[in-house]
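Good day; I would like, with your permission, to put a structural problem before you. What I wish to show you is a protein chain and, alongside it, a tokenised description of its three-dimensional fold. Please examine both parts with care and let me know of anything in them that strikes you as inconsistent. Thank you for your consideration; the sequence and its tokens are set out here:

***
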Amino acid sequence: MGNTARVIVVAEHEEDLDHLIAVSQSRLAQLEARWSRFITSSEVSQLNTTLRSTWTQVSDDTALLLHYLVEAFHATNGAFNPFLLPALIDAGYSHSLSGNNAVAVSLPSHSTWHATASDLELQQTTSGWQARLLNGATVDPGGIGKGLAADIVAEQLMSLHAHGVSISVGGDLRCMGTPGDAEVWPVDIEDSEDPSHIAASVVIPSGGVATSSTHAKRWHAGSDVRHHVINPTSGKPIAQNEPDALHTVSVVASTAAWAEVFATAVLVSGAKAGTELITSFHLASRATRTDGSSVESTSWAQYASTTLV
């Protein structure tokens, strides 16, 4: 995952806050250790590098993550595709672009980005969950790992009697309960090209907000500038010179994980198809085309408090 997190907790007693914050830090670190593709000992890395067709023991957390990956692939007809890791590495994203983790990812030689959800199998046994990858498949938790981590920790803190929680992991935000002095949570969405500016503001009673952008992670390959959003059809970073191309998408959904899934799916699909996808699931989105113009779903207005152009 390799991202920073911001945790806001509202509790009845001030002495409860230190405990709740400590729980969130510990839990986020645990999920990072289990899910990061940049940590060779993580369960995701072990799953990606184990012998094909061999069942690998995974924790309940990782089983939940894998379930989400499959469901997200099917829900978006493959627009959100967590099986593109070999293509991502080929494009140059082989090591973390944030923090001090420079460990390069090494995959088996037969790994392929053409794998689909049918190449990931998950089963529960008397000793716990097991998973295996078939036909050269690998998995990359990508953004959904950030969103799901925010969801898991927010729900845990609420179960420990927090009155309200707002958790952002790498920009994927989950809000639950109340912020204490209001009934809804105000959320500012940064401009992907200039994080010092706010592109839009929304208010949500409870739920998730996520933004996916081709500006989030970029690197140079010779004279070319590349980004981390891969076209599942071509295996290359999505083109930015097409009329319907987008560079940033923000989505409001019931959870941070689903907000991230659909933000990425819309970014990959383009303005027209992406907005149709959002509408079919009754979600809200705001997208920015590569020419700077924006397009909002019909339901965005119910969350928007201020939009700056």
User: Anything to note?
Assistant: Helices lie at 14-35, 43-49, 60-75, 85-90, 142-159, 256-269, 271-280. The chain has a mean pLDDT of 89.
